[in-house]
Design brief:
Length: about 110
């Protein structure tokens, strides 16, 4: 199984965590961030791009190949899925926090 297939399978298994929230159409892949992928201090490990930036109207979730531990990958994936559920425009604000804490994420919202 390749990384994208594994990520997609994990995402599907995590969807029930978002009961009561609508998760719009999304696609998961492993790839590098628009910026900050190799930053020594503020390294980004995942990104959620709005459905508006995708030709077919799909949210694009990127998990970076710098993550190796499957639990870290799954946690990052859930964080990015929370962006889809909250709406990308919520960024890391109240709406995102509500979804993130509902699904069990904790801590600073930019690095849950």
């Amino acid at each position: 199984m390749n990384r994208e297939a594994w990520l997609t399978e994990v995402a599907k298994m995590c969807e029930p965590m978002f009961k009561g929230y609508t998760i719009a159409k999304y696609r998961v892949t492993c790839g590098w961030p628009a910026s900050g992928g190799m930053s020594p201090k503020k390294r980004r490990v995942g990104e959620c791009h709005s459905h508006k930036s995708s030709k077919d109207g799909t949210h694009e979730l990127f998990i970076y190949p710098t993550l190796e531990n499957p639990l870290d990958v799954a946690g990052t994936l859930v964080h990015e899925m929370a962006h889809v559920a909250a709406g990308v425009e919520a960024m890391h604000g109240k709406g995102f926090r509500a979804v993130a804490t509902y699904v069990g994420l904790a801590g600073k919202m930019t690095s849950t």
